[in-house]
Amino acid sequence: MQANLRPPTPQRATVAFWVLLCLMVGGSTLPAVAQADLTYEDFEPESTLVVPENPLTRSKFPFVDVHAHQFRIGSSSEGEVRDLVDQMDDMNMAVMVNLSGGSGAGFESAHRATEKVSNRIVHFSNVDFSDVDSPGWGERWANQLAKDVENGSVGLKIYKNLGMFVTDSEGNRVATDDPRIDPVWAKAGELGIPVLIHTGEPRSFWAPWNGNNERWLELKQFPNRRRDDATRFASFEETMAEQHRVFKRHPNTNFINAHLGWLGNDLDRLGRLMDEMPNMYTEIGAVLAELGRQPRAAREFFIKYQDRVLFGKDSWEPSEYYVYFRALETADEYFDYYRRRHAHWKIYGLDLPDEVLRKVYYGNALKIIPGLDASLFE
User: Fold this and answer.
1) Residue 372: how many CA atoms within 13 Å on its side-chain side?
2) Which domain holds residue 360?
């Protein structure tokens, strides 16, 4: 029915809420915002919970961020690169993996800009799908990948445009498991480099935009992230299945399934996929809130798959790393995640054992990303 397709109006709920609050507190502490005008975005309750707090600004062990983006680093000055490394040092980041290295001349610029700190900042290269149906595309880009590796690339990053937005010359969506791309996946395995691949988005982006959607606020702020138009997008299940078929078809290539494969809300299912595909690794960029709301289950997942999970953050904002450290290292309860549109809930610490932390922070990255400076972690 049409009425159910409209976003919820907060006024009715908020009026009732503030009337009740007024009766409880005698009307003496009502906020400046008019009761009937208070919206979901305005409602920012301050917790009265009193529990131990252990905020962190440095990780317990040096770490590799396998999911970082420095899109303009190729044009950075030596001083700007040095400032970036100083910020890494402040939080104990030993190595940053810049996934936005580009290819060809663009990759060479990125590598050249960081040459003096090449043990601290490394780059993955990228692929251009714009002419994917031109003759020999797969072989041509497999050869380009090999050249980029010769020039310093230590991995391949695939953006989420593949499987959702990339189209061929006839306007058809290019699926992630399109056979025209097979030479690229195979070449990565041959070269011994991992493929960090971002496929799809949170399942909630495909769900109706209504009061039952956990990402309601994000879809309000960014309406273009809605994926419920079946004429433009494949379903969530099909989008993810295409990715999994690639992993199975190329068992000699290591894939890092970005963002917990968008299954942070279903760790049992993610675990079954890990069991089924030993060449699939994963990382925790931008999905910390999923882990922090289920600390016991998440802790068990990290312990069971401690050899397959890597540390990643995604967008560059140093202060947000602190929440990751606290979530992974402490047993703190009910503290703030850093981005409300991702999570309207508080999160809890996983209190991971040191042996697991070491693997997540750096051990697993050293295992599958070639050429990292192991001396940084001794």
Assistant:
1) 26
2) 63-377
